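Weekly structure sync, notes
Attendees: PL (lead), two postdocs, one rotation student
Agenda item 3: pending single-chain targets
PL asked that the sequence for the first pending target be pasted directly into the notes so everyone works from the same version. It is reproduced below exactly as submitted, 136 residues in total.
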Amino acid sequence: MLEHPEVMIEFLVPEHSRGSDKPKDLPQFGVNAQALRFMDIALMMIIQLPFGAIPVNVPHPAAFALHKLLIVPRRTNAEKKQKDLDSAVQVLKLLDKKGELSIAQDLLAKFPKPWRKVILKTLTDNRQGAIAEQLT
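Predicted structure, written out during the meeting:
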């Protein structure tokens, strides 16, 4: 992670093995990165946004929301769990309002069936069944 008074940059990489709290050393860049489970989702669909004069690649909001919904059941901290759920639902509602929920539908269709089940169950279990229905 790099910190500056105006910005903080976290370096993230996909986690492909058992979880670890230790950062992954990236000596070629001179930084450490945090490995995140299901990070591949965020990398499936990238958009570029301006950050001042610098273009920055970030996950598409649909990828962000689906990633959050997949990790919600794994969270042990109730506050983080609720924050992830709220963020995901808010993003999906905004995509729906903009007429872009089909992006999330298309992305979800590419996920393995167990991931899709977890995401839809997470929504349904948290009184967001209407959104779950829209995604299928």
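Discussion points:
- The longest helix spans residues 78-97.
- The chain has six helices and seven strands.
Action: rotation student to compare against the earlier draft before next sync.
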